[in-house]
Amino acid sequence: MQFLIHKNAGEQCLKLQGDSYHHLFRTRRTKKTQFLYLRNLRDLNCYTYSIASLDKKEALLHLISSKKTELINPPNGHLIWSIIEPKNIEKTLPILNEFNLRKITFFYAEYSQKNFKLSKERLKKILENSCEQCGRITALEIEFLNNLEEILTKYPNLAILDFNGKSLKNLKEESILIGPEGGFSPSERILFKNKSVYSALNCNILRSENAAIYATLGII
């Protein structure tokens, strides 16, 4: 773990409870004499805290100092991903976060299963855990839109990852869209007129989560 994420990092006094407390003091056996390094993912500061008191359920922290971190590698790229089974998205999300992807927009395509629901809080927690492990100091932005029409209205200059397209090496757009497991419907393909289409060349048919990784590598 590179640091701990806490939404109130930067305040003079903090309480650690729940999962964060358990991970630090039960799993990692952190000592009271150690310093803790916290971030909030809203600014670029690393906050150093001392452990003022420690009991069986919580720890009280006092702020010692803060230092702004230079953002050497800013996040880049925008993946537009039609919703698939949540467990597959949750498994892939840390990989995309480690790749330093800037933003993901989720939407329901016509062939998406509408009973699949994503929990914003669960995704946020997964991303926070990933940042703590990989050292990313900026939050991956998550957005939800309803359907393809809304996507094309908000992001008219996107590219499409589909069959029979150009090599992703020639990608110029920052945003790229991938479909669900069943692909795009005929009515959706009509909406792609005049859009740039790229293919996963030299690959077999990709599962949606693998297409997400492939597309991300092309836009970051």
UniProtKB/TrEMBL annotation:
Its EC number is 2.1.1.193. Its main location: cytoplasm. Belongs to the RNA methyltransferase RsmE family. Keywords: Cytoplasm, Methyltransferase, rRNA processing, S-adenosyl-L-methionine, Transferase. The lineage of its organism: Bacteria, Pseudomonadati, Campylobacterota, Epsilonproteobacteria, Campylobacterales. GO terms for biological process: rRNA base methylation. It is found in: Cytoplasm. Residues 77-216 form the Ribosomal RNA small subunit methyltransferase E methyltransferase domain. It comes from the Bacteria. The keyword Calcium does not apply. InterPro entries: Alpha/beta_knot_MTases, RsmE, RsmE_MTase_dom, tRNA_m1G_MTases_N. GO terms for molecular function: rRNA (uridine-N3-)-methyltransferase activity. This is Ribosomal RNA small subunit methyltransferase E. GO terms for cellular component: cytoplasm.
